[in-house]
């Protein structure tokens, strides 16, 4: 079931004319108000008719909803009222989205130590990739679908600034830090690969280093993936305020569709996953 939502901007039936001493509102005539409302209705009808046509072509049941108000507020309200599983919003200015055959998808999923990250992984495996495989391919073709599991390690600083001259870390400290990051990555990938294997979906693990939001967009473009998936709370090792900017950055800079998966409220997104043991 798909809900097609169009939000009309609220129409003010008054204006404040410019000029010195002009502080009284001038109300629009009834004919002007009705004309604007009619124009909005025609625009909504045209948009939704086109969307309904696309749904029919793909044999997908759809219902249309029209709201008036602030777009971001009304969309969130509609999503909550209809209890939808996924909210999809287009992004302007990023160029056209290439069409891909639904029997061959390349999806990139950003992973970290958080529960929210793995919730996003399992949600996509169950609700996006698995239905595609079940309806469009047979067992021999499942391996064509590919998931890139990407974990980005933050750059490891080789120096610190104490109260005095710069102090560089020793080689042993550097190696210890890198080893710890490798252990974390191994633990994340071990769990993620098992989830993909259980769903019979081919996956490749990629460990990267750098600024997470920038690296994710770069890898997504290099691999030419069809979809980039990130958790709504970003990377668990950073502050929540910064983490939110990861998904926001990807939404505006990735050269492919971006799916942001919001975990349920009861999920503790700050809890880390167990690390791989020897």
Automatic annotation (TrEMBL):
<feature type="domain" description="UspA">
    <location>
        <begin position="107"/>
        <end position="262"/>
    </location>
</feature>
<protein>
    <recommendedName>
        <fullName>UspA domain-containing protein</fullName>
    </recommendedName>
</protein>
<dbReference type="Pfam" id="PF00582">
    <property type="entry name" value="Usp"/>
</dbReference>
<dbReference type="InterPro" id="IPR006016">
    <property type="entry name" value="UspA"/>
</dbReference>
<dbReference type="InterPro" id="IPR006015">
    <property type="entry name" value="Universal_stress_UspA"/>
</dbReference>
<dbReference type="InterPro" id="IPR014729">
    <property type="entry name" value="Rossmann-like_a/b/a_fold"/>
</dbReference>
<feature type="domain" description="UspA">
    <location>
        <begin position="2"/>
        <end position="99"/>
    </location>
</feature>
């Amino acid at each position: 079931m798909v809900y097609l939502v169009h939000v009309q901007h609220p129409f003010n039936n008054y204006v404040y004319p410019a000029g010195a001493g002009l502080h009284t509102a001038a109300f629009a005539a009834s004919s002007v108000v009705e004309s604007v409302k009619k124009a909005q209705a025609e625009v909504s009808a045209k948009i939704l008719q086109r969307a309904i046509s696309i749904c029919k072509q793909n044999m997908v049941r759809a219902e249309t909803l029209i709201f008036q108000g602030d777009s971001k507020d009304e969309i969130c309200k509609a999503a909550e009222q209809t209890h939808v599983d996924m909210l999809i919003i287009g992004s302007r200015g990023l160029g056209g989205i290439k069409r891909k055959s639904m029997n061959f998808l390349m999806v990139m999923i950003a992973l970290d130590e958080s529960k929210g990250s793995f919730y996003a992984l399992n949600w996509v495996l169950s609700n996006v990739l698995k239905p595609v495989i079940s309806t469009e391919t047979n067992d021999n073709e499942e391996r064509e679908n590919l998931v890139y599991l990407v974990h980005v390690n933050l750059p490891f600083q080789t120096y610190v600034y104490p109260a005095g001259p710069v102090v560089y870390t020793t080689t042993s400290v550097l190696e210890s830090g890198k080893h710890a990051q490798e252990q974390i990555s191994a633990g994340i990938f071990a769990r993620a690969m098992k989830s993909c294997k259980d769903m019979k979906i081919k996956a490749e693990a990629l460990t990267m280093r750098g600024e997470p939001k920038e690296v994710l967009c770069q890898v997504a473009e290099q691999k030419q993936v069809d979809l980039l998936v990130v958790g709504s709370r970003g990377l668990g090792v950073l502050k929540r305020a910064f983490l939110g900017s990861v998904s926001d950055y990807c939404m505006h800079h990735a050269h492919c569709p971006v799916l942001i998966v919001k975990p349920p409220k009861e999920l503790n997104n700050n809890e880390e996953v167990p690390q791989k043991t020897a």
